[in-house]
Amino acid sequence: MTPWLWLLAAYFAGSLPTSYVVGKAIGGMDLRREGSGNLGATNVYRAMGLRVAVPVALVDIGKGWLPAWLFPMLDGGAASGWAAAYGAAAILGHTFSCWMRFRGGKGVATAAGAFLALSPVAVLAAAAVWVLVFAGRGIVSLASIAAAVALPAVVVVGNAVRGAGDPWVAGLAVLSGAFIVWAHRSNIGRLLRGEEGRISDDRRARRGEDG
Q: pTM to 2 decimals?
């Protein structure tokens, strides 16, 4: 296949609505009408718990990793930049799924998967930032925004220090980081107003528990 067909395949790989399928198959629910209405692993956790959310997150990571890692080996020696393009297509597929009327998740897990193939050190750094922010505040959106800012910073600074690196990967890092921050714009508004809840509070509220 030509790189353009692999690009389309990457979009379709990313567009697989993992959380929707799992919500329907296991919980008999439409996650677009549960919790935040977002089709990502965080909303799966809110609605169905950790044992379901973790496999969903791993599949969403795989949807980004597989096109960025495998497709460049199969595209007939396409020029540099196509690996980043496949990762970008997977992220867009996850966020704007053609199966869900172009709704989806916010791209965090799928972007992490793409960069596991493209720049694994940057993903480890961003994951460390995510864990630190989440441990300190308990707010998934804030941790995700912080990680989305950290990842391109690590890629760009790393390229500058080494005096080398793939400019396409750096460009995707900047664009995907900005895209994920944009996807969290409603969360940012709630954060600024002091209204964004902790994930533990969401789960307690769903179970009908106190404080």
A: 0.90
